[in-house]
Hints:
The structure holds two protein chains of two kinds.
Chain A: E1 6-17, E2 20-32, E3 37-41, H1 48-56, E4 63-68, E5 71-72, H2 79-84, E6 85-88, H3 92-95, H4 102-112, H5 121-131, H6 148-161, E7 166-170, H7 178-195, E8 198-202, H8 206-212, E9 215-220, E10 223-229, H9 230-235, H10 240-248, H11 254-272
Parallel strand pairs in A: 3-8, 3-9, 6-7, 7-8
Antiparallel strand pairs in A: 1-2, 1-4, 4-5, 9-10
Helix pairs in contact in A: 4-5, 4-6, 5-6, 6-7, 7-11
Chain B: H1 2-8, H2 12-29, H3 31-34, H4 69-104, H5 107-122, H6 125-135, H7 140-166, H8 170-178, H9 182-218, H10 230-238, H11 246-273
Amino acid sequence: MTVPLLAINQLAKMFQLEGYQVHAVRGVTVDLWQGECLAIVGESGSGKSTVANMILGVYPPTSGQISFKGQPLGAHRTKSQRRAIQLVQQNPFSSINPSRRIGATLKLPLDVHDIGTKGARMTRVEELLGEVGLPADYATRAPLTLSGGQCQRVAIARALASQPEMIVLDEPTSALDVLVQARVLILLNELRRKRNLTYVFITHDLAVVRNMADRVAVLKDGQLVELKSTHEIFDNPEHDYTRRLISASPVITEEERIMRNRLREGLAMEAVE
Amino acid sequence: MKRAVRIIFATPLSVIGVILIGLVVGSAILADFITPFPSHRGTVVDFDNFNQPPDWTNIMGTDLVGRDLFTRIIYAYRISLILGIVVLLLAVPLGVTVGLMAGYLGPRVRFVLMRTTEVFLSIPPLVLAMSIMGVLEPTLINGMMAVTVMWWPWYSRLVHNLTLAEREEGYVLAAEVIGASRFHIMFVEILPNCFPAILTKMTLDLGFVILIASSLSFLGLGVQPPTPDLGSMVAEGARYLPDSWWLTVFPGLAILVAVFGFNLLGDAMREVLGTHQ
């Protein structure tokens, strides 16, 4: 019998805000399988970031459970549990500490999880930079000298450093311009294939969903209103809310056309290699 | 280094500030070589020359037992600077640690630490230092301790506020997700981002610590004779105003120059580092 990589069962989160309660997430159930990319879509305040934070263990759920490879994740996670699920955030400039060198930022996960010998860690940092398409000498640079796309690549390298099985991508491209977006998405696809990674892709950009996700979970007011393969959800959106979401997004914009071509080019080039 | 140059030449006033501080610090370090009567910092009595107005041998005049006032002022700078630096070296790490913990470790820790800080802040600084000095013997070491006790809360408040803002930044979440220790997050991730503001405040404060320490010794609660001290020199001379004006005017000006210089430099740092509180 196969066990899902991540099983989310009746997950709920309630926040106490100055006397009244806010149900951010109410009863979300979804299984994630090794190697798949699940997109979580929904408007602001729909609870998608709350779900992500609970997957990452930033705060515990009010009720319900998350299991990783069949093992329930408690309020305090072990190092190996933390190591297995990593994060790429939306704002690349905020997520990289501006007063530390890139090398120090990338070395942190190696130090925390005791990966490799101390002497070999700087070499490993340079390898990681190479994996995300940055030159090795970036290790000595300050974050302020990098562009948004480069910072996001560093953030991806940091997420890869602890050799996770799953990465939560919290709107990783929405702060970048379209061309950079496309390149980052190509990189993410490539890494996923190479390392058999599982992605939870949080976004409100349906164009990105179409190009990246295997399945889509639609959240509204903290509830899962639809969960289907990407193909199905665009062809036959069942729920009224999903329909409105899809119709509200431009069908094929010029931006998306450029991005699609880029993605195709990238994939074609990979095929040649 | 580029930053340091930018701070020095930020405005015409900052250049003046740097020159003033250079003079104060330089003369304090080189006191043994540039003062005409180095022995006059101690117990020397020269009744032939007591209470003389400024002339070519004693450019700032002599005090009530005939010691060269210029010499004593330069040595007083040395004591003041040492006191200021030691106070900040004790108060800043303490205040910064309390502020980081209060800002990062959650509401309960914050409640305890910040209420404690506020208790210290609510007592007028001079009153607090005076009551401490009233219990302890008035020595240089105790003076430093008294000023330190009243100084650290300002840093814990500053760093607490900075930490509250910094911990919302993505790099803190990133470090938490990686599983870094709380010590690492506070002291390695957050603290470096507070440095510009802390350094600016330290520069401004060096002047104020000198001022407070002088106030204490003016009241007879700080450094004791024969150690030269600007505050006690002003206090001593005040009884002989206006006739022996040099006894108060020169030590008073000396305090002014030091405080003014550190303030000008601090303002320039605030401008260049963008650390408006």
